[in-house]
Amino acid sequence: MSTLMRILVMFLVWLAFTAVTFYTCVQPQCCGDADVITNTDETTPAEVTNNYAVVSSLGSADVLTGTEWPALRQRLLDQYNANPNQLLEIYGHYYPSEAVPDGYENMGFLRADRIKDLLVPDIPADKIVTLARRMDGATPAAEDKWQAGTFNMSEPQREDEPDKAEIVELDQNEIIVRFPFGSATNSLDQEVEDYLEKLADRLKATEENVTIIGHTDSRSSAEFNMRLGQRRADFLKDVLVRNGAPADRITTESEGETNPVATNDTDSGRQLNRRAVVKLIP
C-alpha cells in the first residue's frame, strides 16, 4: 500500500472516531432536548405588588404608600378644596398587643401622624384631626401588611350650635354614632334616626350579628362612665329593634372612658370620645 493510501485510510478512521464521539458524548450535554437539562428545583418567584394606599405592619410606626395612594390623596384634596371649612379626620389603626410608643397613647395616634405628614401642607395641619382606631380580632403576623388608616371629612361644630349626634362610617361594617355631651338616651337627630332605620332594614335582610360598644369622655368617675357607655349602647340597640332588627343578634357592652380615640384634654377631643361603635359581623 502506498504512503498516500495509508494516510487516506488513517484520516478516514480518525474522522469516523470523531463523529461517534460527538454524537454519543458531547451533543447530549450541550445540544440535547430541553427536558434533559431542565432544573426541576427552579421555581418562579411570586409577583410582588403594592396595590394599596397606606399600610403598616405589627409593631412598626412606618406607613408605606402604594399605587392606590395618589388617587386617594387626590380625592381627599378635592373634598377639602370643595369646602375648606371641613376637618379631615385620620384614624390610625393599631392592635392592642402593640407596644405603646413614646409620647403617644397607642400606636394608632403615631400612625395617624405619619399619614398626616403625607398630606400637609396641601391640607393645612390645623384642618387635620389625628385619631386612633383599635383593630379587634386576630392579631396579624409580623410580616403581614394591613391598612394603616381610615379617613373621614366632617363639618366642625360652630360655637353657637348645640351638640348633636353624628354618624361616621369607618367602613361598611363599622359605624360610629357620636353623642352630644351628657346624652345617653335622648332622642336622636332625624338624620341619625333615618340612618339607623336603614341599618335595621339591612339586618332584617341578612344574617349579620351586631356588637354595639358604648364609650365616653373622661369627665365624671370611671364607674359612672362605664354605666353611661352601657346606656348609650343599649339605647342604639333599642332604636334598631324598634325598627325591626332581630334583638337576639345584637349584643351591647361598655368600655366607658378606657378606649379614647382622641385626647380628653380639649372640648373637641372629648366630643369625639362620646360615641358608640356599631360593628357588623357577617
Features:
282 residues; alpha+beta; 60s Ribosomal Protein L30, Chain: A; 2 domains; 7 helices; 36% helix
What does this structure look like?
With 282 residues, the protein is α+β, with helices and mostly antiparallel strands. The protein folds into two domains: 47-156, 60s Ribosomal Protein L30, Chain: A; 162-281, 2-Layer Sandwich (60s Ribosomal Protein L30, Chain: A). 36% of the residues lie in helices and 21% in strands. It has seven helices and eleven strands. The strands form three sheets. It has a five-stranded mixed β-sheet with strand order 7-8-11-9-10. A three-stranded antiparallel β-sheet has the order 2-1-5, with no helix packed on it. α5 (190-205) crosses α6 (222-242). The protein starts with a helix and ends with a strand. Residues 22-48 have low confidence and may be disordered.
**Helical region count?**
7
Structural class: alpha+beta
Radius of gyration: 33 Å
What form results from the Cα inertia axes? globular
CATH superfamily of the largest domain: OmpA-like domain
Total domain count? 2
Overall mean confidence score, pLDDT: 85
CATH topology of the largest domain: 60s Ribosomal Protein L30, Chain: A
Order of helices and strands: HHEEHEHEEEEEHEHEHE
Termini separation comes to: 100 Å
CATH class of the largest domain: Alpha Beta
Order of strands, widest sheet: 7-8-11-9-10
- Tell me what the CATH architecture of the largest domain is: 2-Layer Sandwich
Largest sheet: 5 strands, mixed
